[in-house]
Write a structure and sequence with these properties.
143 residues, alpha/beta
């Protein structure tokens, strides 16, 4: 999670919300890392998690990322959670909860929805105060 926090800090230079993500394979090797880049790319889907999934799939040569763990500084939204299910991510570890848009237990629970073809193990609240502080500081500077 500390690495994801460092990656999240890179978003500040483009004015993007500071969320960082990384993907680790089944052997514990870091495969990819990314921060939010919606502002930088003018792409509404350029969330850190989506960018990490794209990069990891390219490295792996397959969309199926079974056995992988995705670490992200904030609870994933519905788009990102859906993409994680489709990529067959095994574990998602996230920092702070997101009560307005969270899809890993706060508002929805897409990752563990029994109606879907794949369910993801979820570990939330890891370094939550540090992850939340990054977002609070970012949005305080915008008001």
């Amino acid at each position: 999670m500390r690495t994801a926090l460092t990656v999240a800090g890179r978003a500040a230079s483009t004015g993007d919300v500071p969320i960082g993500a990384l993907l680790v394979d089944a052997e514990g090797n870091r495969v990819a890392a990314a921060c939010n880049a919606r502002e930088a790319t003018a792409d509404p889907t350029a969330h850190a998690e989506i960018l990490v999934l794209r990069a990891a799939a390219e490295v792996a040569g397959t969309w199926n990322l079974s056995g992988s763990t995705l670490v992200v500084t904030a609870e994933p939204c519905t788009m990102c959670a859906g993409a994680m299910v489709l990529a067959r991510i095994s574990v998602v570890v996230f920092g702070c909860w997101e009560p307005k848009t969270g899809a890993a237990g706060s508002l929805w629970d897409v990752l563990r929805d029994r109606r879907l073809t794949h369910r993801v193990e979820v570990r939330g609240g890891v370094l939550a105060p540090e992850c939340a502080a990054l977002l609070v500081d970012f949005f305080a500077g915008r008001r």
